[in-house]
Amino acid sequence: MHKRDIDIAVIGGGLAGGLIALALAKLRPELRVTIVEGGTCFGGNHVWSSFASDIAAENEWLVEPLVTARWDGYDVHFPGHSRSLTTAYRSIASERLDAALREALPEEALLTGVQVSRVERNRALLADGRKLEAGAVIDARGAPALPHMAGGWQKFVGQMLRLERPHGLSRPVVMDARVAQLDGYRFVYCLPFSDSEVFVEDTYYADGAGLDVPALRQRIADYAAGRGWTVAEVTREETGVLPVIGSGDFAAFWPGGGGEGPARAGTRAALLHPLTSYSLPDAVRLARHICSLPDLSGAALAGASYAWARAHWGRGSFYRMLTKMLFAAARPEQRYRMLERFYRLPQPLIERFYAGRSTPADALRILAGKPPVPISSALASLAGMGRPLAPLESAA
Question: Quick one: how far is CA 5 from the chain centroid?
Fold first, then answer.
């Protein structure tokens, strides 16, 4: 392929790259877009979920066609507190993203099973020796680790369970922390996709990135048995180890101020919520922003994506502070107390928090009152004198 054949090449067909390609196909149909994915399908094997309040009304058109299931609210459970909230909740299965891309873009623009060895501002070098040249390249390959940053890890195993009898859930359980607190803050997450199908995820906010998949599979089985569910079949399984950011050097993470290298998107640009690791809201926002840019040359797009990510980093300071408190001030088995207290706060505040839109008043409200961690430990963590945060340079 030659430069004249492609205006924008999106390298990485996961959530961030897929949403960019879909948005460009809809809003900038005059552009020739190609998307390259190393796996056999776009999106991989994932179930992405978000609150309806995470997505601005003017951007809903991008997400709605991908929604696999939706609910009018959700529940949370902690040892000392349970609550039902009315914020709508939605889930997207990766198969829906793959289908949407295949419908929106011509077949020749969809490259799967293609490994990329090097990404440059206007060119991608493929592992088989081919060169993919374009007016601009966006690196959206994801990042299992974040160099020059520190924090912890959100890691999980999730399984779709087909049960012999109805499970009795009418809405998601976003956090069930009434389970044994092992390896940090642990909770179980349940999505009822039908009367007898439920996606169950065993999740940990842990200092280390190690994931014992067989152990978590057994814990999911034990949780299901404890709910009185008899599993007929496990129809899908997903694993993940996601960085949770407490501190970092953004300039070192993305050197050159966008003046060198290609545009970035998704986790490769640190476009995620520092505490929750949620990336869908930021992926939607960046996709719309890219479509609005008047100059989509390689240099302009690289500079614009850097500026966007740098501004996001600046807005995340409060969330990084909370991550420090969670990992450096709270004992691992007591971390759940921070979330238990958080879920006693007003629902609009909780919605803004997950959307990454917390106000200064929200921050004061979250920090007000008796902290759920020892005050001395909280102050030490904020001063950088508490338990050191783990480097996020490798999830291996």
Answer: 32
Q: Note whether 318 and 245 are within 8 A (CB).
A: no
Its sign, for the CA torsion 357, 10, 155, 385, is negative
Asked whether residue 378 carries a pLDDT value surpassing 50, the answer given is no
Give the C-alpha separation, 278 to 54, whole Å: 10
**pLDDT tens, 73-96?**
999 999 999 999 999 999 999 999
CATH number, domain 3-68+91-147+249-315: 3.50.50.60
- Nearest by Cα to 335 from 150, 182, 156: 182
Domain ranges for the chain, please list them.
Answer: 3-68+91-147+249-315, 149-245, 317-391
Tokens of 126: 């493929």
Question: 346: closest CA among 173, 77, 87?
Answer: 87
Residue 300 has pLDDT above 80, yes or no: yes
Among candidates 313, 286, 13, which has minimal Cα distance to 142?
Answer: 13
Q: Average pLDDT for residues 118-126, to the nearest whole number?
A: 95
Coil/strand/helix, residue 140: coil
E strands present in the chain: 8-11, 33-37, 47-51, 69-71, 74-78, 81-85, 89-93, 110-112, 116-119, 123-126, 131-133, 136-139, 149-163, 173-176, 185-194, 197-206, 231-248, 263-264, 390-391
Q: 275, 326 in Cβ contact below 8 A? A: yes
Phi, psi dihedral angles at 152 (to 5 degrees): -155, -160
Q: What distance in Å separates the CA atoms of residue 304 and residue 299, rounded to the nearest whole number?
A: 9
Q: What is the pLDDT of residues 40-73, one digit of tens each?
A: 999 999 999 999 999 999 999 999 999 999 999 9
Tokens at 60, concatenated: 């809903």
What is the pTM assigned to this prediction? 0.93
Sequence-separated (6 or more) residues with CB below 8 Å from residue 74: 84, 85, 87, 89, 171, 172, 173, 174
CATH class of the domain at 149-245: alpha beta
Distance CA 327, CA 322 (A): 9
